[in-house]
Design brief:
With 271 residues, the chain is an alpha/beta fold. It has 8 helices and 10 strands. Helices cover 31% and strands 18% of the residues. The longest helix has 18 residues. It binds manganese (II) ion (MN).
Length: 271
């Protein structure tokens, strides 16, 4: 049974005792095709209670990590205000030495996260796992659409790496940001803090149909575990998990998969 109010599995520590903080940002202002990510944070929390808190891959348990769930940011205001509050929260949490998991929301929330990480830590590199290049300068007049998030991130940080992309609008194909899974070690630095942005549509829609913009082909669940395993050697300070669309997840298996990925990411990166 999930506790009421709803929180992520085993996230029962007060903030000051927690090493890892979960924060929901149910913002859905930047979608381009169909909706749902506003419902994602609580769908992921709910689904997490169907899972074990133990990972046999790393033989660690969430209970021993110390996780706090801060609930959701208030998104009933302008997008810029939401970004600003997210940025401020991220700065405070990272300065306090916490590691942060942000449950989106559409992919635009990554911008607030990375701005905050830069405010707290200076230079930050970003690894984006995404089916889409998201490199448009604007989409239907909106520079902060989820279709533009990697373009905006590329303007912020020195090092942006995109893995899993298979949807391009043409000219973006020759941009320098794309990498294969196996190229991650040579593209990222082990020195600089790293923000991980996990757009769940990077997964094959056959195993993860519940997203706003499904794209055929894609990574497997095992591929993502390989990424988490690899990133143990890097200074990952936080991650966002975005674009789950519960209305297109009638079996609920996408929400469960998202929750499982959050558990495995926490235990691989910070367990
Ligand atoms: Mn995407």
């Amino acid at each position: 049974m999930a506790p009421s109010p709803l929180r992520f599995l085993s996230a029962d520590r007060p903030l000051r005792e927690a090493r890892v903080v979960v924060l929901g940002v149910p913002l859905e202002r930047g979608v381009s095709f169909r909706g749902g990510p506003a419902l994602a944070p609580n769908a992921i929390r709910q689904a997490s209670w169907s899972l074990e808190s133990f990972s046999h891959h790393v033989r660690k348990d969430l209970v021993d990590v110390g996780v706090c769930d801060l609930g959701d940011l208030d998104v009933e205001r302008s997008r810029e205000e939401v970004f600003r509050e997210l940025e401020g929260s991220m700065q405070r949490l990272l300065r306090a030495g916490k590691r942060v998991v942000v449950l989106g929301g559409d992919h635009s929330v990554s911008l607030g996260c990375v701005r905050g990480a830069m405010g707290a830590l200076g230079k930050v590199q970003v690894l984006v796992l995404d089916a889409h290049s998201d490199l448009r300068d604007e989409y239907l007049g909106d520079r902060f659409s989820h279709a533009c998030v990697s373009r905006r991130l590329s303007e912020l940080v020195d090092r942006l790496v995109i893995v899993g992309a298979r949807s391009f609008f043409g000219p973006d194909l020759d941009e320098p940001f794309f990498a294969e899974l196996g190229e991650i070690p040579k593209k990222l630095s082990r020195e600089a803090p790293l923000w991980l942005s996990l757009d769940l549509d990077v997964l094959d829609p056959g195993i993860f149909p519940g997203v706003t913009n499904p794209e055929p082909g894609g990574l497997s669940y095992g591929d993502l575990l390989d990424v988490f395993r690899l990133l143990r050697g890097y200074g990952v300070v936080g991650m966002d998990v975005v674009e789950l669309a519960p209305p297109f997840d009638p079996s609920g298996v996408s929400a469960v998969t998202a929750a499982k990925l959050v558990i495995e990411a926490i235990l691989h990166l910070w367990g």
